[in-house]
Structures are given as C-alpha cells and as structure tokens.
C-alpha cells in the first residue's frame, strides 16, 4: 500500500518521503492509518487498493490546495463552515492544535473548515486572523447542532444491555458529544438522568451513548466497550477505544476493552 501511495504522488508530480505510518510531502505529513482502514474494509480485497489509493491521494492534493480557503472565502462563509472536531491527542500535535478546551480525555478538540471535498483542520496560527477562539468555538457549536445524522439505532440485548448509536457520513458525528445533553433529548425524547451518561467516540463517523438509569448500566458498559474497541480498530478516523462517563458537561474515562479483557478505571 505504501508503494502505491508513493507511485500515486509521483504520477501527480509530487515526490514524497515514505515512513511506516505516513508520508511527508512539501513539508506536510499525511498519516496512512485512515487509508489502511479503508483498504482493510473494502470487500474487493487487495485488487482494489490501487484505485482506493489514487482516490485518497487526489483528496490529499486537493486539501493542500484547500488552504487557500482562509484567504479567499468571505468571512461569514468561513464562519458558516466552521465546526468542532476531535483528533487523537498525540504530543506532536499539541503545538499546532492544543488551543481548544480539554474536554474528552486523550483527544484534542480543534476547529475545522468543512469544505466541499475536504475538511481542513485549523492550527492556532491559521485562526489568528479569523477571530477570537472562544467566539469561533461558540459559532462552531452552533453549526454542529445542525449536523445531519444518517442513521440512529438502539442496541438491545437480553442481559439488559441497551445503548443508542448515531452514524453518518459527516466528519463531525463524534463531535456531537460536545452537545450530548441536547442529543439525548433529540433522539430519546427524554432528559439526561442525574447519574449521567456513558458515551463512546470510536471514530469520527459514530457516537454511542447510554443514559444511566438502572442496573442496566453494568451490561451496557461491557457491551459498549467491546463495540467501541472494534470500531476504533477497524474504521477510518479512529478516535478513542474508551468509554467515558459524561456528567454535567464533563467527561471521565471509565472503561477500555482490549485483547486482555475489560479494564475499568475507578474514579472517586
């Protein structure tokens, strides 16, 4: 797959440095984990990889050109296309993207432009001419409330497990965790309970939640942890393998499932 990536860039006149987890082109690094997940999940197998790589590289190149948007689009249009987005909280990203509030443990909350073909995550430097960060985040949250959810399903099992799953093509489905109380009212027709909500963000296109009301929380937590681990491992845009407890707007990590089993993180 890395060979296909190098060849695809070369065909488009761009030489890249290929590394184990990504490539560097024109002083910008592009990870390959999302592309690897897309190839892994394609039912056609390896014979489809070259086509998938070509499509991915075309999008990457368009995103390199998409940086022009901040200089060319009217200010109000930029604000209308601004959304909050979660990305993995890798130390290497902190300098450029560590400006957002510390909301979900292990993730960075950044501001992003939703362009016609790409989503452009905005660094602290690129935001300097756009406005004050608190006001920009407020506008992004306002836009987030109108994000389209393509599918809502409820997982129910005989052991008492039950949780809701929201899915969609939007890159900002997981970001709906930032307005979780509103989301719960919209999709369950009920207010959040005083004991809070279990919530998972396995990847950018999915959000799962369970409103804590009774003893069904125990089996729901276990099933959500397994569900989240699979989505995190197999889907593009992976965010977190953990289940969190949301209470009065704050997120606390409570459980993670891996090959060794379920790990519960106790809090005081």
Short description:
By secondary structure, the protein is of the alpha+beta class. The chain has helices spanning 2-11, 33-41, 49-66, 69-72, 75-80, 94-97, 124-127, 133-144, 180-188, 217-234; strands spanning 17-19, 22-25, 28-31, 82-88, 107-114, 119-122, 151-156, 162-167, 197-200, 206-211, 242-247, 250-258, 261-264.
Overview of the molecule:
With 268 residues, the protein is of the alpha+beta class. 35% of the residues lie in helices and 26% in strands. It has ten helices and 13 strands. The strands form three sheets. It has a seven-stranded antiparallel β-sheet with strand order 7-8-10-9-11-12-13, sandwiched between helices. It has a three-stranded antiparallel β-sheet with strand order 1-2-3. It has a three-stranded antiparallel β-sheet with strand order 4-5-6. α1 packs across α3 (49-66). The mean pLDDT is 87.
Which key features would you list for this structure?
three-stranded antiparallel β-sheet, alpha+beta, 10 helices, 268 residues, 35% helix
Describe the protein's topology.
Elements: H1 2-11, E1 17-19, E2 22-25, E3 28-31, H2 33-41, H3 49-66, H4 69-72, H5 75-80, E4 82-88, H6 94-97, E5 107-114, E6 119-122, H7 124-127, H8 133-144, E7 151-156, E8 162-167, H9 180-188, E9 197-200, E10 206-211, H10 217-234, E11 242-247, E12 250-258, E13 261-264
Antiparallel strand pairs: 1-2, 2-3, 4-5, 5-6, 7-8, 8-10, 9-10, 9-11, 11-12, 12-13
């Amino acid at each position: 797959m890395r060979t296909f990536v190098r060849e695809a860039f070369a065909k488009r006149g761009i030489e890249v440095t290929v590394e184990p987890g990504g490539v560097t082109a024109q002083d910008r690094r592009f990870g390959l984990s999302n592309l690897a997940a897309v190839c892994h999940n394609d039912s056609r197998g390896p014979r489809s990889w070259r086509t998938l790589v070509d499509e991915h590289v075309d999008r990457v190149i368009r995103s390199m050109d998409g940086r022009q948007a901040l200089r060319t689009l009217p200010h109000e249009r930029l604000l209308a296309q601004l959304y909050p987005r979660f990305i993995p909280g890798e130390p290497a990203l902190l300098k450029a993207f560590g400006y957002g509030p510390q909301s979900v443990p292990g993730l960075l909350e950044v501001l992003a432009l939703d362009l016609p073909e790409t989503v452009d995550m905005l660094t602290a430097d690129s935001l300097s001419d756009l406005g004050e960060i608190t006001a920009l985040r407020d506008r992004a949250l306002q836009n987030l409330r109108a994000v389209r959810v393509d599918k809502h399903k409820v997982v129910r099992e005989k052991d008492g497990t039950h949780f809701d799953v929201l899915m969609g093509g939007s890159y900002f489905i997981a970001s709906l965790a930032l307005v979780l109380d509103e989301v719960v009212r919209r999709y369950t027709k009920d207010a959040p309970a005083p004991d809070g909500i279990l919530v998972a963000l396995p990847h950018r296109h999915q959000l799962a939640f369970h409103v804590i009301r009774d003893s069904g929380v125990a089996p729901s937590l276990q099933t959500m942890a397994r569900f989240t681990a699979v989505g995190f491992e197999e889907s593009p845009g992976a965010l977190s393998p953990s289940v969190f407890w949301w209470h009065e707007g704050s997120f606390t990590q409570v459980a993670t499932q891996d090959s060794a089993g379920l790990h519960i993180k106790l809090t005081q």
